[in-house]
Design goal:
alpha+beta; D-Maltodextrin-Binding Protein, domain 2; 2 domains; 6-stranded mixed β-sheet; 5-stranded mixed β-sheet; globular
Amino acid sequence: MIISSIGCSGGNSGNNVEPQGDTQTPQVSETDTPQEEVELTFWHIWGAETDASYGAVKKVIADFQKEYPHIKIKEDTTENEAYKTKIKASAAANELPDIFSSWGGGFSKPFIDSGRVLAIDDYLDDATKSRMVNGALTNVTYDGKVYGLTFGLSCGALFCNKELFEEHNLEIPETYDELVEVVKAFKAKGVTPMTVSGKDIWTIAMYFDAMALKSAGGDKVTSTLLKQGSFKDPEFLNAAEKFAELVELGAFPEGAAGLSKDESDIPFLEGKIPMLFNGSWTAGTVYRDDSKIKDKVTVVGFPVFADGKGGKNDFTGGAVDCIMVNANTKHKEAATLFQQYFCENMARETYLAGAYLPAWKVEVDESNINPVTVELAKLTSEATGFTLWWDTLLEGEDTQIYLNSLQELFLGSITPEEFIDKLQSMYE
């Protein structure tokens, strides 16, 4: 089966499965391939064995080393949230590694604006671009130039334990009103309905981003985040009020504020909590070795709002996880060679691992892919649009204003109205 497009123009723990694909070698001429002994430092976020991409990264780097033994890849890995702080500080100090993982959109824009990232247009030929799916370069293109390569598409989705729903005679919710009733029903039976990490704030944002999308629609969310609108528009307060309602109903675990992402996943993987809204990489988590819910999970989009402008097939996410090259690296040819090799082969390996949907046209045996990932591919093939996650689209300090304010809303220390006021302060 060749995956050529998954309807996208536009995180992350999980399963450490053994990758199976054959590597794809970039079409680089002998004269373009540097033969001197070089060492490239590569910073990324996939260093934990519980990460869905862990095995894929190890395989792709090992395969690259075999094919290009004169290029040594020196890895340095950091956990997601700590990595974001580290990479921003390193960019500000002009101390970036040769190659590094990042996120497109607003997250990397300060790096580009300060001249820290290499524009790679001169290293990309039409043959290479033709092997990418539509939209693979959208979020890494700034002012008409390409500054990164993506390898996977991600989307936000609601992962539901079918067995728990059937056991309690409940239907998987399609609307927000149905979700509220399901939350109440599970709570009445002593079951915590949903899980989230209050410590890793981005997991809370996964929920709110989707709710804002269902309330306001993709165009309004994007324009407002780009400061071409107003958070005072009623759709954003509507999303904040509904989010606060879920918290008040007890949708999330007691003590969630102190849980890490990995800790919050445990009761879901043990089959004790029926719902988790997170990125598509969760499909890999479901099939992790220690998971007790294999073959018990189905996936749907976030329930629609009766009073909302976002549709059933509107999703958060897109092709945004990327690999960039330091503009000041002494080994541009070697770094861009690795960048292309890594991204194209990661597209296949992370798809096989259930971590991402591919941003490159890859040939795979679908029988080797876990059923939830296949279900996600079908679900997103019908997407009408993808809206970037807020903490990716927002720039600089605005990201922290959003995340810190959302955490306060989650903890109940501010009201939905106060939350909106804090968001609007980004415009000041």
